[in-house]
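Hi V.,

Quick status before I head out on leave. The structure for the redesign project is tokenized and pasted below; the design run finished overnight.
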């Protein structure tokens, strides 16, 4: 299933428990939620202010102006 993701992070969140570090997905593209699987690498070339739509293959399908200005999520 394709998902619409508003990209705001550029890397995973590192969590360091006592035994070994874990990386939590911050971009929403991982297939191993909540853990990072490296899918964020395709998002590194994204430009601020653009809307990117990703499909199941984790590749951007289209982009356009970010139309979510003024939107509030409850």
């Amino acid at each position: 299933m394709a998902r619409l993701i508003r990209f705001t992070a550029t890397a995973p969140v590192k969590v360091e428990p006592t035994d070994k570090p874990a990386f939590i997905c911050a971009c929403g593209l991982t297939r191993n939620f909540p853990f990072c699987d490296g899918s964020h690498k395709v998002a590194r070339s994204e430009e601020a202010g653009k809307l990117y739509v990703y499909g199941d293959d984790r590749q951007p399908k289209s982009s356009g102006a970010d139309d979510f200005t003024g939107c509030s999520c409850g």
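Above is the designed sequence. The mean pLDDT is 74.

G. will cover questions while I'm gone.

Best,
W.
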